[in-house]
Write a structure and sequence with these properties.
Elements (H helix, E strand, L loop, with lengths): L15 H10 L3 E4 L2 H10 L8 H11 L11 H5 L8 E4 L3 H11 L13 H16 L4 H10 L1 H6 L10
Parallel strand pairs: 1-2
Helix pairs in contact: 3-7
Length: 165
């Protein structure tokens, strides 16, 4: 889109005509990840100040959606998939399968300089880690997390998500 704007400029800063023109001129790709795995990743990166995963989850739940930091805010509120018509939605853990196809469809060269993805190992590790950390939570916390991320779980097919049970 020809208008100059910085990388941090939000769509809400533009008028409707500009937004439609911008979104119509871009290939829109949305990368999504199971919300529970996003929480684990955030916790492990030390983005929360809580000593245990259970207390971190309680901090997330206590913060509420309007005040939640971007790291654990539901995807629906961050990327507006009901308003923005994305060309591609790529699930975390399937990058190896999707990246070549995505690059070809976008008209970009698919070369051998792409990093090696270890999707299978990552999925297995997160599956094991998710079960361990999920077991640390109380039934009430599990139910509250499922409610907190209910729209993400409804919008995206996170097969095997512990929060959708």
């Amino acid at each position: 889109y020809p208008r100059q704007h910085g990388p941090e400029t939000q769509l809400s800063k533009f008028n409707l005509t500009e937004i439609e023109a911008m979104l119509g001129s871009y290939t829109k790709v949305l990368f999504v990840r199971d919300p529970f795995q996003r929480l684990i990743s955030t916790f492990m990166q030390g983005m929360g100040s809580s000593p245990s995963f259970s207390s971190f989850v309680q901090d997330v739940l206590d913060s509420g959606q309007p005040n939640a930091p971007m790291a654990w805010n539901p995807l629906i509120s961050l990327c507006q998939p009901c308003l923005v018509q994305y060309d591609y939605v790529v699930m975390f853990g399937f990058l190896r399968q999707e990246l070549g196809h995505l690059l070809r469809r976008a008209g970009l060269p698919v070369d051998s300089h792409l990093p090696k993805f270890t999707d299978t190992q990552v999925r297995w590790t997160y599956s094991w880690l998710s079960e361990q950390m999920f077991n640390e939570l109380s039934l009430q916390q599990k139910q509250q997390l499922s409610h907190f991320y209910r729209w993400d779980l409804a919008a995206f097919s996170f097969s095997g998500s512990l929060l959708s049970d």
